[in-house]
Each structure stands twice: as C-alpha cells, then as structure tokens.
Amino acid sequence: MTQPIPITRAASTPRARGDVKHVVMWSGGITSWATARHVIAEHGTASTVLLFADTNAEDEDLYTFNETAAAQLGTRIVRVADAQERDPWQVFEDARWLGNTRIAQCSHVLKQEPCRAWLTVHTDPASTVVYVGIDWSETHRLPAINDGWAPWPVDAPLTRPPYRDKHQLLTEARVAGLPTPRLYELGFAHNNCGGGCVKGGQAQWARLLKVFPERYARAEAAEAKMRRLLGKDVSILRDRTGGRTRPLTLAALRHRIEQQPEQLDLFDEGGCGCFTSSASQEAAA
C-alpha cells in the first residue's frame, strides 16, 4: 500500500532553486489534480512541485484529499500561507474592505502573494513554468493570468484537447483511486474555503446554510461586524431583483431562504478564481 506523502512546509527547502521547473498551483480542486497529473505525466515528479496556498478556511476533507492525491501522484504538496496565518475574514477586517463577488482581496493576500514569494525564492522564471487549472471554457481568462504571474510563463493544459468537464474529471479521479472531495459530493462547484467563498453567489450560500449552518453563521456574523466597522451598507452578495442592484446581506439572504425561498437566484452560483485572476485586480481594493 502506498504511504501518504507528507505536505512540506514552505519554511523548508526541498530542492535547490534551479531544480524546480514545473509549479502547479494546487487548490485541492479537481482541476488542479487533473492539471498536476498532466504535468507529471509529461515532465515527471523530479522537477515538479504542487504549490498549495492555505487560506485557513478550508474544509477538513480538503487536507485529506491533498494527502491522498499527493501519494497517488507520487509527489508532494508544498504548503504556503499568509505570514500571520490569517483567514479571509481577518484579511477583510485588516484591510477595512469587505470582499465580494467582484473583488476579493483575500485572493491576492492569501493565495497570490504567498505563492509569488515562494516562487521568488525557489525558482528561476527563465526556466520555470507555472501551471493553472482552468479549462477550455475559460480561455478568455488567460491574458489576465499571464499578466498576473509575469515574469513566470503560464500554461493551462486543460484548455487543450481532449476537452473534459468537471464531472468527467471527477470520474477519472475515482477510477484512479481517489475519493471525491466532500464539498463536491455535497453539491458545491468548488473545493475551496470550506464552501464559503465570497466570490460565490446566492446558490452557494444557500447550500452552505443548509449543509454547514455553523459556517454560514460565522460568515453572517463577520459580515455584520464589517458593516459596523465601516459604517456602510456593504455586503458580499447583490440583490438584482426588479432590475435594480443593491446590497444583499447574508442575514437578509437567510431570512429570504427561510420565508420566501422562491426569490432565490439559484443560477447565481459564482466560483473561485484565486490563482487565475489578475493580481492587479485583486490588489485594487
């Protein structure tokens, strides 16, 4: 039986700077697994690193998936995180800006900055490629991604044939012996931030309220605290009913779910793009 490969902490130096040639931005989602499998099949494990930026708000099962996937792929995951080990809500409070579906500076602070710092120490941009897990339906995002990770060149293997969707990738992972991450089994579109990504829409938050009410309650309280601190009518979500856009707090959404569920926008699913948005966009806040 293959023994789990431990996650390497960023404080260690697993290889010399010139030895790292292929860095996969690992989120714990199915597309990062598929991307890593492609890179390892093409380039092997000796010069490949799976770089995991921990937001400290992840589902417990994500860490289990990481360990199992690393063992199955025959490589290791290097964990990086904010120097203060903050989570998204602590970042919002320190920045005095509530992340939302349009701009969420947690992506920049908790994902992009720690990864860039690691890349700067451990890799040479002239000989290292950064890989991101976007697929064929997201090729329009490549210019911003290339700009955000410069001077490192970027590749996105899933944007090329054979084209597969997440359902197919999850099936491939099961065939390879990997368990499906719990959040996918529960109906979430991603495996990030414990199902409570601020870039997610109403459908995501309604699902979080149903399956993880304690996580929803914490987010609702944190949003209310930010509103008090800022003294402004701000929110994560937007209400677009009646053709007019206005703030929709998590408290208001919960009341709507409890009293008038037919008013939910179940097509407003949203999704994470922490490794694939432009750093300049996320830093704008």
Give a written overview of the molecule.
The chain has 2 domains: 8-193 and 271-283, HUPs (Rossmann fold); 201-263, no CATH class. 42% of the residues lie in helices and 11% in strands. It is built from 11 helices and 8 strands. It has a 6-stranded parallel β-sheet, sandwiched between helices. Strands 7-8 form a two-stranded antiparallel sheet. Helix 3 (88-95) packs across helix 4. The longest helix is centred in the middle third of the chain and has 18 residues, at 105-122. The termini are far apart.
Please tag this protein with its features.
285 residues; alpha/beta; Rossmann fold; 2 domains; six-stranded parallel β-sheet; two-stranded antiparallel ribbon; 11 helices; 8 strands; 42% helix; 11% strand; globular; disordered N terminus; disordered C terminus
Order of helices and strands: EEHEHEHHEHEHHHHEEHH
What about the largest sheet? 6 strands, parallel
Based on Cα principal axes, name the global outline. globular
Strand percentage? 5-15%
- Widest sheet: strand ordering: 1-4-3-2-5-6
Question: Count the helices. How many?
Answer: 11
Look at the helices and sheets and give the structural class: alpha/beta
Strand tally, please? 8
Helix content: 40-55%
- CATH homology superfamily of the largest domain: HUPs
Question: What is the terminal-to-terminal distance?
Answer: 48 Å
Poorly predicted tracts of residues: 1-14, 278-285
CATH architecture descriptor of the largest domain: 3-Layer(aba) Sandwich
The top level CATH class name of the largest domain: Alpha Beta
**What is the typical, i.e. mean, pLDDT?**
88
